[in-house]
Design brief:
Layout lengths: L17 H17 L5 E2 L9 H11 L3 E2 L3 E2 L11 E6 L2 E8 L13 E2 L2 H12 L5 E6 L3 H10 L5 E4 L7 E6 L2 E5 L6 E8 L10 H25 L9 H26 L6 E8 L8 H21 L18 H4 L3 H7 L7 H7 L6 H7 L7 H6 L15 H5 L3 H5 L11 H5 L12 H8 L5
Parallel strand pairs: 1-2, 5-7, 7-8, 8-10
Antiparallel strand pairs: 3-6, 4-5, 9-10, 11-12
Bound molecules: heme C (4 copies).
């Protein structure tokens, strides 16, 4: 299961990226299906490609979108399945989808999103008696999910997504457990649930009785020792003794209450274990999923290769500030020769070997574009048609645009890179062991 915010990075598609982003979205859906995903909630971001794309994915990739409050504006009826019922090991489970209605969704009149207060209480009421367990897939922020758990009874588990990048150990509000896995596919959340007739989350009562019994034994031992040591003294007025006897009474009462609860409960309370599995790059790839990724990225590359010839480069571009590495050779031959031995010089070639040299999601870090301003670079349509001299992580990726400096080095200065410069590209996603001081040594240009 997933609570949504899967398909797109933002709530709208960037200009010119319609095809690449919908291709990628389809690939993601295909991979989710290959991983046996039973149900996916719809977050506002999943709507970036429009309702029709979601419908198409539902039909072609067999992915079950769930949302009870994403409705047709005319009929007010859900556009996708509001909930589904599955039986796992004899336990009937109802899964409900809820879409965050707080985002501004622009002018799309194809759908509206109702606030949870209008639909959720009724939907939960309808499940009463007909299911053993209720799971809500919600992409509302945590604060609202907490409010939902606090005000509506009958939801056993809320899986949330889309608003935070961190893992959160499950936390319980009344009888609702709330759980969340870090965003963007970095972790897998693995939760084992032991759901019993009891229907209430709790620690195992027998364990609690045993713990209480141990406590009582310790108290009795302390009381016994005090009595033994002060045979003649009157202990009635001893503060410590009084305290211990009071604790003894309390422990006895607690054990009695727990034993009674145990007799009355139908079965043991429900329990779970939870684990986060970090999806590190060192983990072996799954063959089937890798094939989907390869196919998707190859299609993206093919698609963009065609675009190269149809999209016009804008005038007044950031390109005019860049010289390209060949320009530097005349005055800095030593540094150029050194740089050519570093991996940076072959960064674009690396993409080409993978048939990814037209994938705009990769190019940003494998070419020379100084102000790491993805939006501007994309708006100017630069990535696909850089001159060969910039198709590499060249001098100006670290030293800044140097066209002016090359013409008149006395007047126009360059910059020297610091850690921040590197981190624009050496992000944890692409380099999970970047230590500046270590790596600097490998690429620092020679003096003179
Ligand atoms: C016409 C000769 C010439 C060209 C072409 C040239 N430079 Fe320079 N560069 C110089 C001179 C001269 C200095 C020393 C200037 C100074 O110390 O103020 C210098 C200094 C530098 C420095 C050191 C700056 C510092 O603060 O220590 C860097 C980095 C640099 N250049 C990068 C480049 C890059 C990158 C290119 C190509 C895009 C380039 N230069 C092209 C002449 C040139
Ligand atoms: C424009 C993006 C970009 C910037 C800025 C950048 N790098 Fe890189 N770096 C790359 C890419 C891409 C590769 C991989 C090239 C390849 O193998 O094809 C790489 C490879 C390396 C490598 C070799 C592989 C490794 O990890 O040992 C080192 C070392 C390195 N970079 C250090 C740095 C340092 C230090 C800085 C900052 C001073 C820096 N880089 C700035 C993109 C960048
Ligand atoms: C945010 C910047 C960034 C983006 C985006 C990016 N890369 Fe890289 N890439 C790097 C850096 C940094 C390295 C060097 C890391 C290292 O070697 O430790 C690298 C190294 C590589 C390498 C050589 C090292 C290896 O892992 O075998 C390949 C291949 C590669 N990238 C392919 C891609 C492809 C394909 C894409 C697009 C799907 C992409 N990169 C997108 C920054 C990026
Ligand atoms: C990955 C980042 C990176 C790239 C790419 C890079 N440099 Fe450097 N360069 C550095 C660093 C780091 C220093 C040392 C800065 C310092 O001393 O603080 C340096 C120093 C220099 C200096 C000054 C040397 C001195 O006398 O102190 C020059 C000149 C220079 N680089 C030119 C170039 C040229 C030309 C290219 C392209 C062929 C290039 N650099 C590519 C990172 C880079």
């Amino acid at each position: 299961m997933d609570s949504g915010a899967l398909l797109f990075k933002q709530s709208s598609i960037r200009p010119g990226q319609q095809k690449q982003e919908t291709l990628t979205a389809r690939g993601i859906a295909q991979a989710m299906q290959a991983m046996n995903c039973r149900a996916v909630g719809i977050a506002p971001r999943d709507l970036a490609g429009g309702i029709d794309l979601l419908k198409e994915i539902q039909d072609k990739q067999n992915l079950n979108w769930l949302s009870m409050n994403l409705v047709d504006p005319k009929t007010q009826q859900p556009i996708f399945i509001p909930s589904m019922h599955v039986v796992v090991d004899g336990t009937g489970i109802t899964i409900l989808g809820l879409t965050d209605n707080q985002a501004d969704r622009g002018k799309d009149a194809n759908y509206s999103i109702l606030p949870w207060q209008e639909v959720l209480p009724e939907a939960i009421a309808r499940t009463a008696g007909s299911t053993d367990m209720v799971i809500l897939l919600s992409n509302y922020p945590e604060k609202i999910n907490n409010e939902i758990a606090g005000t509506i009874d009958g939801i056993d588990l809320i899986l949330q997504s889309g608003h935070s990048t961190s893992n959160k150990p499950p936390n319980k509000i009344k009888n609702t457990l709330l759980a969340q896995t870090g965003a963007r596919g970095k972790y897998l959340g693995l939760m084992h649930v032991n759901w019993t007739e009891n229907g209430q989350w709790g620690e195992n009562i027998s364990d609690r009785i045993r713990a209480e019994q141990n406590r009582l034994d310790r108290i009795n031992w302390q009381i016994g020792r005090m009595e033994k040591r002060s045979r003649d003294k009157n202990l009635e007025n001893d503060k410590r003794y009084k305290q211990l006897t009071m604790e003894k009474d309390l422990a006895n009462k607690k054990i009695a209450a727990l034993q009674k609860a145990k007799e009355q409960a139908t079965g043991e309370p429900c329990s779970f274990t939870n684990q986060f599995i970090g999806l590190k790059s060192s983990m072996p790839e799954d063959r089937e999923i890798q094939a989907i990724i390869d196919q998707t990225t190859l299609e993206v590359n093919r698609l963009n290769r065609k675009r190269v010839h149809t999209s016009a480069r804008q005038q007044n571009s950031v390109l005019s500030t860049l010289a390209g590495w060949q320009q530097c050779r005349q005055c800095h031959p030593k540094q150029v020769s050194f740089w050519q031995t570093t991996d940076h010089a072959g960064a674009w070639q690396t993409l080409k070997q993978d048939n990814q040299q037209f994938n705009e999601d990769c190019l940003l870090c494998h070419v020379t574009l100084p102000y790491y301003d993805a939006d501007r670079v994309r708006a100017e349509n630069l990535l696909l048609q850089l001159p060969a001299s910039l198709n590499t992580v060249g001098c100006e990726a670290c030293h800044g645009p140097a066209a002016a400096h090359s013409k008149d080095p006395e007047v126009a200065q360059t910059i020297l890179p610091n850690e921040k410069t590197c981190l624009q590209c050496h992000t944890p996603d692409h380099d999970d062991n970047f230590v500046f001081s270590d790596k600097l040594g490998k690429i620092r240009c020679p003096r003179g």
